[in-house]
Design brief:
Blueprint lengths: L1 E2 L7 E7 L7 H12 L3 E7 L2 H11 L6 E4 L2 E4 L1 H7 L13 H22 L5 H20 L2 H8 L4 H5 L3 H18 L3 H25 L19 H21 L5 H4 L2
Helix pairs in contact: 4-5, 5-8, 5-10, 8-9, 9-10
């Protein structure tokens, strides 16, 4: 047990799991929140499974940590946040935060790369890199759990619903096109790939969301996301189409030797 005493501050009692092989992260978060709210924390450690089970049985609770203020049980970490009027995130709620974080980071990466290469962040190449970096990172997120992505993708992609293997091919194709566009090589390959998957994807999303009015979860940032299908996924596909069209004029002027001889 660790107790900090300060007579001028309100006091709270916290019971949390602290074992040799496991320290409960929510217990640490609860202690930190209490301290930031100005509380003196009487910090009780539950150092064995037996102690944890005995505490749960005594207080009729299913989880730890548990916080008590003025003798009244507040509850776990989420309950403590609600007690202080702070927002508690619903893990099942839809959110655009993953997409905002992704595009924000890829934009910064593109500006940084442009600065490193050209000495200024604001170049045409930075715009190209932004789209290409976004494609590569989006593909990475899909490939983290390919099976889960494919299952979600089959809910709305028109080609995948006719040819299921396409749902597994798509992330590899997007990643390949993105990497090639970052390097600025083999544009004769990256442009058709991006144009094809972007067009099929845009048509599929538009039909599912704006024609059929279906409410689906977007597979664009992987199979574990709660991003709603719609504007974000459509933007992903339109970005690929725009990039392909932008790079198309130079794509076939640098064909490999075997292709030029055909």
């Amino acid at each position: 047990m660790r107790t900090a005493r300060h007579p001028a501050r309100p006091r709270a009692t916290l019971y949390r799991m602290v074992m040799d092989q496991h320290v409960c992260p929510y217990g640490l978060k609860a202690r930190d929140l209490l301290r930031r709210q100005g509380f003196e924390v009487e910090d009780h450690w539950l150092t064995s499974r037996e102690a944890v089970d005995a505490f749960k049985a005594e207080h009729g609770v299913a989880t730890t940590p548990q916080t008590f203020i003025d003798g009244a049980r507040i509850g776990g970490y989420d309950a403590l946040r609600r007690h202080f009027g702070k927002r508690v995130v619903d893990p099942e709620a839809t959110s655009y935060r993953p997409v905002a974080a992704l595009f924000g980071m890829t934009l910064l990466m593109a500006l940084a790369a442009s600065t490193a290469v050209y000495g200024t962040p604001f170049t045409v190449r930075a715009g190209e890199w932004f789209i290409a970096f976004s494609m590569a990172v989006l593909a990475l997120l899909k490939l983290q759990n390919l099976g889960s992505f494919a299952t979600m993708f089959l809910n709305y992609d028109l080609l995948a619903r006719r040819w299921v293997p396409y749902s597994y091919v798509y992330p590899f194709a997007e990643g390949l096109a993105g990497v090639l566009m970052i390097a600025g090589v083999l544009t004769w390959l990256s442009v058709p790939v991006a144009l094809f998957i972007g067009t099929v994807g845009a048509v599929s999303v538009f039909k599912a969301v704006y024609v059929d009015r279906r409410e689906l979860t977007c597979a664009c940032v992987g199979g574990a996301s709660n991003v709603p299908l719609g504007f974000v996924s459509l933007t992903e596909n339109l970005m690929m189409i725009a990039m392909a069209i932008w790079m198309a004029p130079g794509a076939f002027t640098r064909l490999p030797g075997w292709a030029q001889g055909m």
